[in-house]
Amino acid sequence: MRLGLVIDLDTCVGCHACATACKEWNASSITAPLTDYDPYGQEPSGVWFNRVRHYEVGEYPNNKTINFPMSCMHCENAECVTVCPTGASYKRPEDGIVLVDQDKCMGCNYCSWACPYGARELDHESGTMKKCTLCVDRIYDQELPVEERQPACVLACPAHARLFGDLDDAESTVSRTVRDRGGYALMPELNYNPTNQYLPPRVRPAIATNDLARPSLARKVKEWVNRVVER
Amino acid sequence: MNPSLAVIFLTLFSGSGFGLMAIVALVNDFHIDGGLSPLRTVVAVVLALILVTIGMVSSTAHLANPKNAWRAFTRWRTSWLAREGVFAVLFYPVAITYLGWVFFTNKDQDSVALVLGNASAVLALVTIFCQGMIYACLRTIRQWHTPLVPANFYVLGLALGATLLASIRLMLAGPDRTLIGIALSFLLAAAIMKAIYYFWIGRPSGTTLQTATGLSRGKVRLLDQGHTFGTFLTREFSNSITPIAAVRFKVVVYVVGFMIPAGLLALGLYEPLGILAILAPLSAFIGIGVERYLFFVEAQHVVNLYHGRAPASMPMMHPNLRANPTAEQPPRRLVPSYQKR
Ligand code: SF4
Ligand code: SF4
User: Cα(B164)–Cα(B183) distance, rounded to whole angstroms?
Assistant: First the structure.
């Protein structure tokens, strides 16, 4: 079994719901807490397992905003595990989930250097490395209804841009989706063989802009008033 | 990468200590300049142990959770960091036994002393190798992922060790011609190796934001990092310096690290330098310390690509190849998105 996520870059709306739900669940989960530094101050920062970045691809008017969530890819060839000197980082043979044993980690940062995807973050409070657990404490929880045995991010996504499943099983939803939509892994040239896959944005014709009418006088006045009133 | 003093001191001091140990064994093996007297051997080995210890202690200073440091020896099968720890720890008992033998028997040319000395030297050299491989095995950092890194660690460590020993010789006015010759050759070799390395890392790498995101249909640029202020990733990985500053630092490395020590040692061949000879290793340590700073600060982790920091800060890169010259110096304080208009 090779559990992982499939992320649809076509439908992701960049709302950060996955990141927030992840933070909420994991702040009291197996590697809790996810320390925040200066949370209400001038320069808030803290530990997150999932970060959403925003890119623009192409040139106007053929451009598109791509929202790009990234978390641990649970790589097949997880170099973060091989470089760890303490054995705190390990990959579970049964489902491929990469975890950090908080009782063994000495906080040397070496594994974060080895991860190309920025998936590992040191918690300065506990002095240990933290990372996505694929909600290992949810997905096997027999107390939860079957449909909720999924990572928190997947349940939270309002655009259904995140799929969770077994990528080893060729007929699972995730595998079929990857096949149909031409899913790909990030930075294959580094040969980490990440489990998580990304579905490329669909190609749509550009929206024509050259036939837009010039704004009327009334609209110009309205926009001007809007600007003035806002200040 | 974040050029933290802990890792700079670790590689600089332990590298020089191990280098010194290897040179001591070499000098005693081949009776170079008559070999070292037992007392001088003791002084040199004590110095090597002190240097290695400074390095090891400062390496634990960068651990966020040092109480688990003892576990760092367990994964020597896969981790170069664990291997470095194992060999560094093996080095101590052997080197201390050697020290004790020479000190108490007052002999450093009998077979026991030679065996112990060479065993310490081999362990020292193996540890330098592991230290280099810690960096060279990371495919995520192109400037480190090269066999030049362990090679550089070797010549720099040996150059520091040889310079130290030669300057001690100069101060004590012992026979020193061959020893100075060895130190000069290592300094020259180190300067050449560093030059090869600096030219090598100046070349652009293959990974770009396009391949990193897989969005190959057009130019990709960062709109928003998704966080208002710095994260662990930006603090740990986004250090860089401008190409101009890098060139200036490299001049310092060459002048202070290689030329001044070499000049002083060469001068020592003709003039008695006395206590002034200490300036040679001192200058070498400062210059090679700057070299270590550059080694870290010039290394660019691939995750920087996701933050829109394409290889702009790569030194010696043709300006037209730099992805985004304005990204060289990120603003210290990012503007929160709610203040952006
Ligand atoms: S994404 Fe990074 S942390 Fe996760 S398994 Fe791969 S290398 Fe390790
Ligand atoms: S920070 Fe912890 S998990 Fe990472 S390499 Fe060091 S000991 Fe291992």
Answer: 9
Q: Residue A184: pLDDT above 80? A: yes
Question: Which is more confident, B4 or B330?
Answer: B4
Closest partner CB to B233 (pick from A59, A68, A118): A118
Contact A54, B307 (CB under 8 A): no
Contact state of B71 with A87 under an 8 Å Cβ cutoff: yes
Task: Report residue B150 CA to chain centroid gap.
Answer: 9
Handedness of CA A20, A23, A29, A33 (dihedral sign): negative
| CA-based torsion, A214, A219, A224, A229: positive or negative | negative
Average pLDDT for B196-224: 85
Residue A53, H or E segment: strand A51-57
Identify the residue with better confidence: A213 or B16: B16
Answer whether B215 sits within 8 Å of A55, measured CB to CB: yes
Taking the Cβ of residue A202 and every Cβ of chain B, the question of whether any pair is shorter than 8 Å is answered with no
Confidence at B108, pLDDT banded by 50, 70, 90: confident
Q: What CATH number corresponds to the domain at position A98?
A: 3.30.70.20
Q: pLDDT band for position A216 (50/70/90)?
A: confident
CB contact under 8 A, A70 and B306: yes
Mutate to test the interface with A, among B11, B78, B213, B219 (most CBs of A within 10 A): B213
CA atoms within 13 A on the CB side of A195: 27
Strand A3-8 with A197-199, pairing: parallel
pLDDT tops 50 at residue B314: no
Q: What is the pLDDT at residue B311?
A: 55
Ligand 2 atom closest to Cα of A120?
4
Omega of the bond prior to B330 within 30 degrees of 0, cis? no
Cis ω on the peptide bond leading into residue A151 (within 30° of 0)?
no
Cα dist from B227 to A10, A20, B250, whole Å: 22, 12, 35
- Give the pocket of ligand 2 (CB within 6 Å): A 84, 86, 88-89, 100, 105-111, 129
| Ligand of minimum distance to the alpha carbon of B236 | 2
For residue A7, the surrounding DSSP H or E stretch is strand A3-8
Q: Minimum mean pLDDT among A201-215, B39-53, B80-94: which range?
A: A201-215
Q: Which domain holds residue A39?
A: 3-230
Residue B328 or residue B205, greater confidence: B205
* Terminal-to-terminal C-alpha distance of chain A: 57
Specify whether the CB–CB gap between B267 and B244 falls below 8 A. no
Whole-model pTM?
0.88
